[in-house]
Structure formats: C-alpha cells, structure tokens
Amino acid sequence: MANYNKVILMGNLTADPDVRTTPKGTQVTELRLAINRFVSGDNNGDRREETTFVDVTCWGRTAEIAAQYLTKGRPVFLEGRLQYDTWDDKATGQKRSKLRVVAENLQLMGSPRDGGGNGAPQQQRNYGNQNGGYNRQQNNNYDQQSSGYSQPRQNNPAPPAEEFDDDIPF
C-alpha cells in the first residue's frame, strides 16, 4: 500500500508571519496557527473549547504570499504535508524533535480590512506553491488541474414571494 501524507487545516494566525531568506535566495515564512474545536464536556452537557497550536512552514511563492497578505488573527485555510524535524539542543545537548506542517497551498479567508474577525469567508484567494519547495514527480490517475480547495457555496433560497389576488393586465 502506498503512503499518503496530506494535511488540511483551517485556523487563525497567532502572530504575524516570520519571514526569512535562505542563502540561495528562497523565501521561507513561518506561521503559527490556532485551531479551535468544541468538545462535549461531562455528563451535564456542557461544551468546552479546545485549541490546538500548529507550526507551519511555507516555501517559495507560497511563503511570499503568506508574508504579504497574512497578519495576526487572520483566518487561513491551508493544505500541506507533515514533516518531522530533529536536532540537538545546543544548550542542553539533548536531542529534540518537532512535528510541523509544510504548506503547499493556502487560501486566505475573510477580508484584509476586517481581519476575518467573524471567521466567515467573505473573500477568498487561493495560492499554491507548485513545487512545495522541492521537485516532485506526480504519477497518478487523479485530475491535477485544481491547485487548491475552495469552500462550497451555500445555496440560500429566496424568501417566498407575496401572493396578490389582484389581476395585473400584461
């Protein structure tokens, strides 16, 4: 069975993006995403909010777009892959590790003026990094024409028209 590494997240930025450039000139942007969910509490039916914080790294064009348009509190929808990083802590000499998301596509939610305060997608822009910071061959039978996901539109039916008993001559 083939392995599959895909993550789809939607949350709010906890801080402004941290932008760096590699020695070869590739832009890297670090984001921290807060993702909220409600879970049922004890037997009394109370619900409580649970927040998960996720570190996200963007490379190349996706990093440039994130640095240009994202700010603290802004809601963002992204897809990417999990990456497990390990390193030696210079202060303690211990081996450290961290699980992070490498963003390959991102979609801005809300408008820049409102900061996405209510979380409602008033304006959406879809940006994708074609290579995800590395060269990758895709050799599957899936349709690859769309580079990102978009939120389905909600069909709100129009309110019923008032009925008139009058005859209108036309």
From TrEMBL:
Cleavable signal peptide: none
Please name the Gene3D superfamilies in this protein's record: Nucleic acid-binding proteins (2.40.50.140)
Q: Which domain of life is it from?
A: Bacteria
What's a single GO CC term here?
nucleoid
Q: Where is the composition biased (Low complexity)?
A: 122-151
Molecular function, one GO term: single-stranded DNA binding
Where the record places motif Important for interaction with partner proteins is 165-170
Keywords of this protein's UniProt record, alphabetized?
A: DNA damage, DNA recombination, DNA repair, DNA replication, DNA-binding
Which portions of the sequence form the region Disordered?
A: 108-170
The alphabetized list of GO BP terms reads: DNA recombination; DNA repair; DNA replication
- Tell me the InterPro entries matching this sequence: NA-bd_OB-fold, Primosome_PriB/ssb, ssDNA-bd
Question: Which Pfam families is this protein grouped with?
Answer: SSB (PF00436)
Complex formation: Homotetramer.
Its biological purpose is as follows: Plays an important role in DNA replication, recombination and repair. Binds to ssDNA and to an array of partner proteins to recruit them to their sites of action during DNA metabolism.
| UniProt xrefs under HAMAP family | SSB
Q: What name does the UniProt record give this protein?
A: Single-stranded DNA-binding protein
